[in-house]
């Protein structure tokens, strides 16, 4: 059987995917007031996942990441919509956001914004959509 | 509570996402779809009731005040159309399970159905030209998915045309929005209207206005931009055709109605005079198309074009009666077109073909269906006391008071031909000898008739209850003819 010689790809993938995922989380959390955001964070994550699919094959990665990416789209959208609907509880216009500063043990003072929650929804949606599209094209004979 | 305005957009969006989660469990999605669409109808009814009894509701999302933030405006016109959209949507939600194949249902039909409603409601409610574009895209994305649902060869062929023409007009739409932003420095519709008033509608703005008209006319399928519409509307499943016929072209004509009654109203002799001619040609060519074919679905699809022509005619004359007629006819047509599409869907199903030449004598097997079609044809053509009559009466009062005799005659002739084109289905399909070969073995129409009766009941109420409805429509017309009310309610000066 033909077996591709992809030692370099596999070795670098394990390193690069790790860096990409970390950077994606950074982009996601930086998003609401500096460059970054859920959309770009989602794309970077999707890139890391697709890279893993390329290096290790669909079966292996499906075992490591048992996520249904189509469901992930729904979960992301629900998160984003419910964040918007949160404004109903406080009797303020739809999609109003607020923020405050909190003390955390290691990080010190951190600004947390409700826009962040919306961004997480966007993040899940983008990961779900991108990976679904790419896997569908890859599986198409 | 101003957040009420966003509910008709958010409920279908949330519903779409939730039914996508339960995609494989068809029984659950069907029930959820019915529940959510009824809920949304209730909310839309409540919203319109509030708007009609008190005043327009403006929502400045995220507490960003107009004209800087994104606003949603539930004025009488928008809320009336959202209500009508939801009336239609409920009928389609109940019709869909009986009309679609299981495969189509599990390919996210219900999710895209809700996204379509989201886009349509959003387009009606937004007070921002760029957001109008965004909601157009939302509903177009959903419609791209719905048109290929089923994946037959002819669907794929028609959908390529459909996607290309819509992408092209969307590009033009963004370009036009950019031009407007360049010329007046804002995309908030109220502020555009205010600034156009101050600056005067010079050559550049009129050109942009015509460009916008071109974009909306493509979506609304007006002469000469309708060529893509009839064939691509009949290839998907009946319930999808009904949704498209009722909602998509109407969003286009609504946008024309909004933009040319609020913003570009200072060069009437250039814009609105032209509309009258385009309206006349749309009526003629649409009805000729309807007469030219023996495909029952195509007959109804072609009938969309003269209806859009009628609505544009009222805007063209731009007076009290004409505008009332346009608004009334818009509501009337959304309901009756859905009903007709659903009826021909049932006919095509029981006859096993949509070719008129191959059917006949259906009345012996399906008398109820036959009479429903008969009533629907009368409603559509405008036989008193049905709703088409009231709409046309208002429109023709409008044209005659401006001494537009030619267009009045064209409108009357095309009404007659519309009646003939739909009656042709009744005459050829239902009259005739009883077919003894057993070709039309009684098929179950369970669940298909209910939604049609429900829609026709609304249609008949629109006509018979004109006494209660026309005053509201006339108040909308007064409101549309005076852009100041809209501008003041949004910008609060």
Automatic annotation (TrEMBL), chain A:
Record-annotated Na+/H+ antiporter MnhB subunit-related protein domain positions: 8-132
Membrane spanning residue stretches: 7-29, 35-55, 67-90, 110-138
Signal peptide start-end: none
Keywords linked to the UniProt accession: Cell membrane, Membrane, Transmembrane, Transmembrane helix
Recorded superkingdom: Bacteria
Bilayer topology term: Multi-pass membrane protein
Name this protein carries in UniProt: Multisubunit sodium/proton antiporter, MrpB subunit
The species this protein was found in: Ornithinibacillus halophilus
From TrEMBL, chain B:
Residues that span the membrane, as ranges: 6-23, 35-52, 64-96, 108-126, 132-151, 163-184, 204-227, 239-263, 275-292, 299-318, 330-351, 363-383, 403-427, 448-470
GO molecular function: antiporter activity; NADH dehydrogenase (ubiquinone) activity
Annotated localization: Cell membrane; Membrane
Annotated keywords: Antiport, Cell membrane, Membrane, Transmembrane, Transmembrane helix, Transport
Domain NADH:quinone oxidoreductase/Mrp antiporter transmembrane: 127-417
Gene Ontology biological process: ATP synthesis coupled electron transport
Membrane topology: Multi-pass membrane protein
Claim: Transmembrane is one of the keywords in the record: yes
GO CC terms of this entry: plasma membrane
Annotated signal peptide: none
Alphabetical list of Pfam families matching this protein: Proton_antipo_M (PF00361)
Superkingdom of this protein's organism: Bacteria
Keyword hit for Isomerase: no
UniProt family annotation: Belongs to the CPA3 antiporters (TC 2.A.63) subunit D family.
Cited NCBIfam families: PRK07691.1
Name of the featured protein: Multisubunit sodium/proton antiporter, MrpD subunit
Organism: Ornithinibacillus halophilus
């Amino acid at each position: 059987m033909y077996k591709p010689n992809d030692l370099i790809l596999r070795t670098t993938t394990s390193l690069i995917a790790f860096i990409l995922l970390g950077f994606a989380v950074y982009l996601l959390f930086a998003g609401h007031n500096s460059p970054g955001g859920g959309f770009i964070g989602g794309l970077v994550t999707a890139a890391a996942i697709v890279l893993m699919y390329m290096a290790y094959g669909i079966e292996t990665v499906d075992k490591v990441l048992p996520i249904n990416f189509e469901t992930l789209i729904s979960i992301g959208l629900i998160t984003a919509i419910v964040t918007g609907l949160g404004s109903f509880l406080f009797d303020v216009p739809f999609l109003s956001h607020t923020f405050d500063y909190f003390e955390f043990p290691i990080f010190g003072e951190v600004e947390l914004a409700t826009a962040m929650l919306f961004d997480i929804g966007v993040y899940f949606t983008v990961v779900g959509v991108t990976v679904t599209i790419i896997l569908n094209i890859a599986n198409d004979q | 509570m101003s957040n009420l305005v966003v509910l008709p957009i958010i409920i279908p969006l949330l519903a779409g996402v939730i039914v996508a989660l339960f995609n494989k469990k068809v029984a659950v999605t069907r029930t959820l779809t019915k529940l959510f669409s009824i809920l949304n109808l209730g909310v839309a009814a409540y919203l319109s009731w509030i708007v009609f009894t008190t005043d327009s509701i403006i929502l400045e999302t995220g507490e960003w005040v107009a004209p800087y933030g994104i606003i949603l405006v539930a004025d009488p016109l928008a809320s009336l159309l959202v209500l009508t959209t939801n009336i239609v949507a409920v009928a389609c939600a109940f019709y869909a399970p009986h009309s679609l194949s299981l495969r189509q249902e599990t390919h996210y039909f219900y999710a895209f159905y809700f996204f379509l409603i989201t886009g349509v409601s959003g387009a009606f409610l937004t007070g921002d030209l760029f957001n109008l574009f965004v909601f157009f895209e939302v509903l177009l994305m959903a419609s791209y998915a719905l048109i290929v649902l089923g994946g037959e060869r002819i669907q794929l062929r028609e959908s390529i045309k459909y996607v290309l023409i819509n992408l092209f007009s969307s590009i033009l739409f963004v370009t036009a929005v950019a031009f407007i932003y360049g010329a007046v420095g804002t995309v908030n519709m109220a502020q555009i209207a205010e600034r156009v008033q101050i600056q005067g509608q010079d050559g550049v703005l009129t050109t942009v206005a015509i460009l916008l008209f071109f974009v909306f006319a493509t979506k609304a399928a007006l002469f000469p931009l309708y060529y893509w519409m009839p064939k691509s509307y009949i290839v998907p499943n009946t319930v999808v055709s009904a949704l498209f016929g009722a909602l998509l072209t109407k969003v286009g004509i609504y946008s024309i109605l909004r933009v040319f009654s609020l913003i570009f109203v200072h060069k009437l002799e250039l814009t609105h005079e032209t509309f009258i001619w385009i309206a006349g040609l749309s009526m003629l060519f649409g009805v000729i198309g309807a007469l030219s074919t023996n495909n029952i679905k195509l007959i109804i699809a072609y009938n969309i074009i003269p209806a859009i022509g009628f609505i544009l005619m009222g805007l063209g004359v731009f007076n009290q009666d004409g505008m009332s007629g346009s608004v009334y006819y818009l509501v009337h047509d959304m309901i009756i077109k859905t009903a007709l599409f659903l009826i021909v869907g049932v006919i095509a199903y029981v006859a096993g073909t949509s070719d008129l030449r191959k059917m006949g004598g259906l009345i012996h097997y399906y008398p109820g269906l036959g009479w429903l079609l008969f009533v629907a044809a009368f409603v559509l053509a405008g036989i008193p006391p049905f709703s088409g009559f009231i709409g046309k009466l208002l429109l023709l009062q409008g044209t005659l008071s401006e001494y537009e005799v030619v267009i009045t005659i064209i409108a009357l002739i095309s009404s007659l031909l519309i009646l003939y084109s739909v009656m042709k289905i009744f005459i050829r399909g239902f009259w005739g000898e009883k077919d003894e070969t057993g070709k039309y073995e009684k098929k179950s129409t369970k669940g298909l008739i209910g939604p049609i009766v429900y829609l026709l009941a609304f249609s008949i109420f629109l006509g018979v209850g004109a006494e209660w409805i026309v005053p509201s429509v006339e108040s909308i017309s007064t409101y549309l003819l005076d852009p100041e009310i809209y501008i003041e309610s949004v910008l609060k000066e």
